Amino acid sequence: MREIVFVSAGFVLGILCGSFAMYICWLVPKSKELRKRSNAQRYLDLTNQWLIVRQNGYSVSEFLAEKQMCRIAVYGMGLYGRHLIRELQHSDVVIEYGIDCKKMKPYQGICIRQPAEISGNVDAVINTVIWDHDNIERQLSVKVDCRIVNLEDIIFEIIPADKN
């Protein structure tokens, strides 16, 4: 009788452990899987993750400094570009200029250039337009000789989604 209880308990425990392993391996989002979702969902996930990063006491500026990206340009002057600029303004990271396809006035004292006007005098270009990163990276790579990094990748590298 006792053996049946142990075998049954082992069977149930095996099913639970297997189910948990399946959840961890397939259902918890990983960085590459994030890009497969809709743009709206990706922006929502980015916002959520950025809040988690800040609530846990981490910052984008510390991450950039750690990766030796101290002088940057920000590509995309929409909501996320502006949030990034505001977060970095009182840090050691220097924002040399912003980049946007639209002709724009300076934002927070930062000159906004169009892609044809950019130069490579930065450590990195941070792309805040996550839905078209591959195309933007191709276009920028012929203009600048520096890293072109997606904001989404930065935020999810600080604290991976599966660590929340």
As residue ranges, the low-confidence spans are 16-28
Number of strands: 5
Measured by DSSP, the beta-strand proportion falls in: 5-15%
Number of helix segments?
A: 7
Tertiary shape: globular
Strand order of the largest sheet: 3-2-1-4-5
Distance between the terminal alpha carbons, to the nearest Å? Answer: 43 Å
Judged by helices, strands and strand pairing, the structural class is alpha/beta
Largest sheet: 5 strands, parallel
Q: Please, what is the average pLDDT? A: 84
Helix percent reads: 40-55%
Radius of gyration, rounded?
Answer: 21 Å
How do the helices and strands follow one another from N- to C-terminus?
Answer: HHHHEHEEEHEH
Mind explaining what this structure looks like?
The protein is α/β, with parallel strands linked by helices. Helices cover 49% and strands 13% of the residues. The chain is built from 7 helices and 5 strands; from the N terminus they run ααααβαβββαβα. The protein has helices at residues 2-27, 31-34, 39-55, 60-66, 79-88, 133-141, 151-158; strands at 71-75, 94-99, 112-113, 124-127, 147-150. It has a 5-stranded parallel sheet with strand order 3-2-1-4-5, with helices on both faces. Helix 5 links the parallel strand 1 (71-75) and strand 2. Helix 3 packs across helix 7. The longest helix has 26 residues, at 2-27. Residues 16-28 have low confidence and may be disordered.
